[in-house]
Amino acid sequence: MAEADRGPLLLARFLPYRLSVLANLASTTLAGHYSLRFGLSIPEWRVIAVLANEPGLSAAEVVERTAMDKVAVSRAVAALGRAGRIERAVDAQDRRRSRLRLSATGRSVYADVVPFARRFERRLLAALSPADRDALDRILGRLVEELRHGNDTPP
What we know:
Blueprint: H1 15-38, H2 42-53, H3 59-66, H4 70-82, E1 86-90, E2 98-102, H5 104-125, H6 130-148
Antiparallel strand pairs: 1-2
Helix pairs in contact: 2-4, 2-5, 3-4
C-alpha cells in the first residue's frame, strides 16, 4: 500500500466528493427555479434538453447520454408524456422500443428554459477567469472520457 493511501480521507479534498457537492448545489439551486418557473424537475429538464439536441432517442439512450438512473429517466419520461411535452413512437426496427421526441409544447418549454439556464451558467462561470473556464472545460472533458472508457474500476 502506498503512503498516500494511508491515513484519513479528507472529504474536503477528495475529488469525487467535491464534484458531487458542486453538482448537488447547482442542481438544488436550479431545481427550485425550474419547478416554480417551468413546472419541471431536474430529470425532466435533462430529458427535454437531450431530446432537443437528439430527437428520436429511446429511454435507454437518454440514460446513456445523461448518466442518470433508469428509474429517474423512466419517471421523467412518464411525467413529460402526461404533460404532453414529449411524444412516443414505436421504433420501426424494434417494435419493443419507443422513440422519444419533444412535442410542440416540449419545444416551447425548451425555448423558454434555455435562456434561463444560460444565464445561470454565465453567472456561475463569471467567478472564473477566461483561462480558468477553458481549463475547467478541458479537465471536465478529460475526466468524463476517463470514466466513460472503462477506467472506472478502483485501482
